[in-house]
Amino acid sequence: MIGVVLRIGTISFAAVLVLAGAAAGASDEATYPDIGGTWVRPGAAQWDPTKPAGLRQQAPLTAEYQRIFEANLATTAAGGQEYNPQINCMPAGMPRVMIAYDPLEFIVTPAVTYIRSDHLAQFRRIYTDGRPWPEEITPSFVGYSIGRWVDRGADGRYGALEVETRGLKGPRSLDASGLPLHADNQTLVMERIFLDGANRNLLHDRVTTIDHAYSRPWTITRSYNRDPAPVWVENNCGADNHYVSIGPETYFISADGYLMPTKKNQTEPGLKDFDPPSR
Amino acid sequence: MGRLSTALLAGVALVATGGAVLAHHSFAMFDQDHPMDLQGTVTEFKFTSPHTFILLEVKGTDGSSTVWNLEGASPSALVREGWASKTLKAGDELKMTIDPLRSGAPGGSWSEKKTNFSSGQPIVTH
Fold it and tell me: What is the ipTM score, two decimals?
């Protein structure tokens, strides 16, 4: 594990050097790629959209976290998903927010690129003002992101936004199938966000996750279609979430407001601190 | 279209047709291998986040009735399919194929693609 820690530290340090040298002080909006606006996930919501969910994701997990993932899959097969923080309205956090369960809205300014997701009220700030990393980062689900614009073309526009995100907290997972992230929350996320070379209405985010649950950095690419006429629908998960987790079990609320089991032979929640019902 | 986007979208299409699309939570608690048909009366259509719900009163052969709590897509996703908060109203008669809770309790998931009025008329016409 120490070797893994050092590896992550080395990658992070290299990224610091790169990002610190990037005083992305461009002030002319015409120099940015046309990524502002609304972007919609085309379909698949498993972490690597090119592979089926579950073991066929071929996630490069460590042996310890492969066992955790397989236990999560077994829980899923039985009808549970206690491993999934979102079941209780916890935000996805990074990098899962980039799955885009609801559309993502990109707002590009010279100093900051914002990525807004109505889904579970998540809001990313990617600082592009050349700031250094703060000495201390208060952990958050979406983390602290520093980016730089790169690959300026002959037309004067940058070609991509490269981002490093750190300072994350948990619990988080990569997707709803239970792909885990390490409990130490030392995840680093590196991204390259760019428009497709042939289709300017297609946006790519190449995401590399560096996490102690994985034996090597894991890179996948998520893509989004531009929505020229977005309709925004408020999504407050707490408004009508029908799942209740009590101890190690999750229950479903019935039409008349009572707990229902989600699994066969699921035990009822313990009620030891309640008076028995009057007869 | 570039090689990356072509390959990626082809992969997406392959995956999207190969199984249930995962939402913010998995639909693992619903038995997708044993769907069941329901016919009944809407008592409430909840166009709420994070997911929509249809409460459907279903009458049994013995005359009893049970209200099923059926979870659907998010409002955001349904809006893109032409649905709105008033698309259904109490009293509407529906015929649906749902994925029931694995526990056997009266709950399940519904899909706009497998839901019609009892007359056979589609809910939303495009």
Answer: 0.76
